[in-house]
């Protein structure tokens, strides 16, 4: 039975006041007289009339939906049709289900990645104090949203956008144009990657979590900027070919400037993995053309097909302590790891292993723990599968997870994880030019004993070239890593006192 709080304008407190007056259900409210409501303290005539009218509209809407579902001469629905009907009507419950894919936001610093996420979800992903003080993203940002669709208007929008456009007294999940019922499409997650060159390793970590990406390019700057080049190269390395180009900040330029910038973008992406990507002009600050962006998500970045029956593996991108200062010992909760499921499934109560794990004097010790909770945003799940970004609560001492100390690890079923490696043999492809530098510097071959920054999955480690072979390089790693099979190694070297992306490698053999 639906509660009174389903009625627009009635919150928890008002619902309690109505129940005390003997109005316990929506049916009671719809059949109540204005005089009855006026006897309740704090309710005036206009408010009473609105409550009763909204209750009647709600019941009428439910009656219409039920009528459509059981038409007299209609044949028994197949399971497929019933599932489709459920997707249309039970939006509130479907919004609590796990996200189906991860969409990355990449591009040069201050081109509007975090602002775009805010326009789509209402979340400001720069949650850390230093990020807010400096006005840039430092850590990977995450947010979830639901894609809704109006078949009558062919309109796509997120649940946040629909709520922002909803008129007072209008039922939730209705089209802002035709006022028809919106359909549920899917839940998605966003990965907001830092744009600053010093944080490139963090961006590369995020690329391993993306099923598709939005490349943001500001219309008020020449294209390409240094990190625009670097982030597009990272998408190429990660083999992410589902790309949407967002031409942001069109509100800050004239039409002629916007068109000139668009031509620069086309020239820049020609011959790259993003050559055929659509270019959508938007203003993230004013929410212009957001519907076109959401439509592009549905048309260009499909839900990936993943095998849930494989052994569970989870890339750890974040880890933290959720206990507030001063929490008593008996109320302390275990550490949380956040990231994305690569394959398989995990349920609350199962035991997992985390590798490389805890750093000791003579190496690393894998950690074992129990899963106590699984969450995605505000939604608690009993089981997690591939798709979206999730948080896994554990029985770990919070001191082991605070400050992203387990970021870069991999979690999975005990005995099913890859081995811990302190050296690898890679077949390396070097770029012609250094990526991310304003100067077009040539990339020279790797040298013996050269120090490198290696990023594979969400793991970042230092590397030293120990052997140069005919068609590969042997690289010693510190700290050791536990890379998933088949993952690409992004390679950066120090140029002008900063790490710059120079190439990528694939593991060709087990280092001996």
Would you mind describing this structure in some detail?
With 512 residues, the chain is an alpha+beta fold. The protein is built from 13 helices and 22 strands. It has 4 domains: 4-74, 5' to 3' exonuclease, C-terminal subdomain (DNA polymerase, domain 1); 101-300, Rossmann fold, CATH 3.40.50.300; 313-412, Translation factors (Elongation Factor Tu (Ef-tu), domain 3); 421-509, Elongation Factor Tu (Ef-tu), domain 3 (Beta Barrel), CATH 2.40.30.10. The protein is 25% helix and 31% strand. Strands 3-2-4-1-5-6-7 form a 7-stranded mixed sheet, sandwiched between helices. The longest helix has 25 residues, at 45-69. The protein starts with 11 loop residues before the first helix and ends with a strand. Residues 68-77, 84-88, 126-139 and 195-203 have low confidence and may be disordered.
General shape: globular
CATH-derived architecture of the largest domain: 3-Layer(aba) Sandwich
Number of strands: 22
Spans where pLDDT lies below 50 across 5 or more residues: 68-77, 84-88, 126-139, 195-203
CATH superfamily of the largest domain: P-loop containing nucleotide triphosphate hydrolases
What is the terminal separation in angstroms? Answer: 65 Å
CATH class of the largest domain: Alpha Beta
Computed Rg:
26 Å
Overall pLDDT score: 83
Largest beta sheet, briefly?
Answer: 7 strands, mixed
Structural class of the secondary elements? Answer: alpha+beta
Q: Give the fraction of residues assigned to helices.
A: 25-40%
Total number of distinct structural domains = 4
Strand content: 25-35%
Please name the CATH topology of the largest domain.
Answer: Rossmann fold
- Work out the helix count: 13
